[in-house]
């Protein structure tokens, strides 16, 4: 919940004067107040956090947040409740407009469409943290972000069930050619057909990528009487009676339905191309609700025209329109018209995770993670920085400050940092690294106004520095 500014200011028992208050764009990146939201709700830790000291060297309304792609109301409410300035847009933005806007903000919230490339991020001089209000994080240059001290959070499984349910619906829809029958009726044609329409009971579903979504789908498919096989690059415990197969080819040769649930990576680009379609059973079906790059669409078009693939459902595309109402035409993807002309092909506008349940849950999860990061520097569940968390400072601990030092992971940094902190009592400290980047958090006591500036300047002068924040 939000802490009113006045209360936050006056309740702070620390002795640091507000003359140090600066814009959050400076290195005093600091929290307005502790999130009392969903994090560890009901736990001992949360009850302890209720007495947490409100860390706040600048006004909450100085924190500028840009939310794109219609982020759910739940997330917007949490962020606004903190007093942050929140700008909300329903669509994504073209690159030039995104670059203009991102220069000014400390936090950006996106979904799967907005591409935060190195080119865009290098303009984001004030950016502290990115919230992906979705599962996939392939749209963000995670490495560039980490190396520039920008944390990235997502929601790893809040929409998994929604995707799995959509796929179940599509399996039956394809098996019964429901899409075509419905279209014919809409056009006024009665066409009662049973040829090549099937029950799904007893058929084999091949799941490629047996993670959160793949394994959920496995449970649902078995409940409908299907046999499930799966292929994954790691060995994973089978759920129910499902069976892992050793290769993608083995899966393609055996499955009546193939459903893709892998992330977008260099290895999964065109995972299903001409050769793989050849391996599939005659008259089998393909479902792709993962990422558009995973299927070679021209090869799919050929396989469908040849009757090799009897039906397909596509929810994702290499290039997707920016907003509702935009056209899905050849300008965007050169094969769009060919695709639209095929029978028994379900085309959906990337709605796998688009349910009220999923979007509400994602809104809360990601907004809470952003608040925790802004307010306390906690990186728990970050996808690109080491996960670091320390218990909050409390009102019983006056004259304390929390130092956050994101730095290059090179030898000798801790010694230098601790030389700087040595004049104060380091009450608690934690440090962890991930690849080239390390994250250090220390709570120190006996800090005076001038100490804070000095500590910050000293840390900033180290050549290992990526970003320094001081919360007090
Ligand atoms: N259509 C939609 O609206 C949605 C699409 N997605 C997409 O679905 C993807 C999967 O989501 P989750 O199941 O949550 O991910 P996950 O990370 O839980 O599972 C992915 C699985 O794929 C496996 N994998 C990775 N590379 C592979 C390869 N080359 N071959 C075979 N297996 C491979 C991994 O080992 C892992 O088990 C996401 O990355 C996202 O791109 C996610 C949510 C909604
Ligand atoms: O969660 C994901 O990765 C998805 O693909 C769903 O994306 P969306 O939130 O609908 O843009």
Which key features would you list for this structure?
single chain, 472 residues, alpha/beta, 16 helices, 18% strand, binds 1,4-dihydronicotinamide adenine dinucleotide, binds 2-oxo-3-(phosphonooxy)propanoic acid
Explain this structure.
Pfam families: 2-Hacid_dh, 2-Hacid_dh_C. Residues 402-472 form the ACT domain. This protein has 16 helices and 16 strands. The chain has 472 residues and is α/β, with parallel strands linked by helices. Strand 10 (284-288), helix 12 and strand 11 form a beta-alpha-beta unit. Helix 3 runs parallel beside helix 14 and helix 7 crosses helix 9. The protein binds 1,4-dihydronicotinamide adenine dinucleotide and 2-oxo-3-(phosphonooxy)propanoic acid. 1,4-dihydronicotinamide adenine dinucleotide binds next to helix 7 and helix 9.
Average pLDDT number: 89
Question: Residue ranges: pLDDT <50 for 5 or more in a row?
Answer: 1-50
Q: How large is the share of residues in beta strands? A: 15-25%
**First-residue to last-residue Cα separation:** 19 Å
Strand line-up across the major sheet: 8-7-6-9-10-11-12
Counted beta strands: 16
Sum this structure up briefly.
This protein is 31% helix and 18% strand. By secondary structure, it is α/β, with parallel strands linked by helices.
């Amino acid at each position: 919940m939000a802490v009113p500014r006045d209360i936050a200011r006056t309740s702070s028992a620390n002795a640091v004067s507000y003359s140090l208050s600066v814009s959050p764009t400076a290195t005093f990146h600091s929290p307005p107040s502790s999130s009392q939201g969903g994090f560890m709700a009901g736990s001992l830790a949360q009850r302890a956090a209720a007495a947490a000291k409100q860390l706040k060297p600048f006004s909450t309304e100085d924190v500028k947040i840009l939310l794109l792609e219609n982020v759910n109301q739940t997330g917007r409410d949490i962020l606004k409740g903190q007093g942050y300035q929140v700008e909300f847009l329903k669509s994504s933005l073209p690159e030039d407009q995104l670059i203009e806007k991102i220069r000014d903000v400390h936090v950006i919230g996106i979904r799967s469409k907005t591409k935060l490339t190195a080119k865009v991020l290098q303009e984001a001089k004030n950016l502290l943290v990115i919230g992906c209000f979705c599962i996939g994080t392939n749209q963000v240059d995670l490495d560039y972000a980490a190396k520039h001290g920008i944390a990235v959070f997502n929601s790893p499984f809040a929409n998994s069930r929604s995707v799995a349910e959509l796929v179940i619906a599509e399996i039956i829809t394809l098996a019964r050619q429901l899409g075509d029958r419905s279209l014919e009726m809409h056009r006024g044609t009665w066409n009662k057909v049973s040829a090549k329409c099937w029950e799904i009971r007893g058929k084999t579903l091949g799941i490629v990528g047996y993670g959160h979504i793949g394994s959920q789908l496995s449970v649902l498919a078995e409940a409908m009487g299907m046999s499930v096989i799966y292929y994954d690059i790691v060995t994973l415990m089978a759920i129910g009676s499902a069976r892992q197969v050793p290769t993608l080819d083995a899966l393609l040769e055996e499955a009546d339905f193939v459903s893709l649930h892998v992330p977008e990576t260099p290895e999964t680009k065109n995972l299903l191309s001409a050769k793989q379609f050849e391996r599939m059973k005659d008259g089998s079906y393909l479902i792709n609700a993962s990422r558009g790059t995973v299927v070679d669409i021209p090869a799919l078009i050929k396989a469908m025209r040849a009757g090799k693939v009897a039906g397909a459902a596509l929810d994702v595309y290499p290039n997707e329109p920016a907003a509702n109402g935009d056209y899905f035409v050849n300008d965007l993807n050169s094969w769009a018209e060919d695709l639209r002309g095929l029978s028994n092909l379900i085309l959906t506008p990337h709605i796998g995770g688009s349910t009220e349940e999923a979007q509400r849950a994602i809104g809360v999860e990601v907004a809470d993670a952003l608040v925790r990061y802004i307010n306390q520097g906690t990186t728990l569940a970050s996808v690109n920085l080491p996960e670091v968390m320390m218990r909050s400072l409390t009102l019983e601990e006056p004259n304390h400050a929390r130092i956050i030092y994101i730095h290059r992971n090179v030898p000798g940094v801790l010694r230098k940092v601790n030389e700087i902190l040595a004049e104060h009592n380091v009450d608690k400290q934690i440090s962890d690294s991930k690849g080239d980047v390390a994250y250090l958090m220390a709570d120190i006591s006996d800090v005076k106004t001038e100490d804070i500036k000095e500590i910050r300047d000293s840390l900033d002068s180290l050549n290992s520095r990526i970003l320094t924040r001081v919360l007090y």
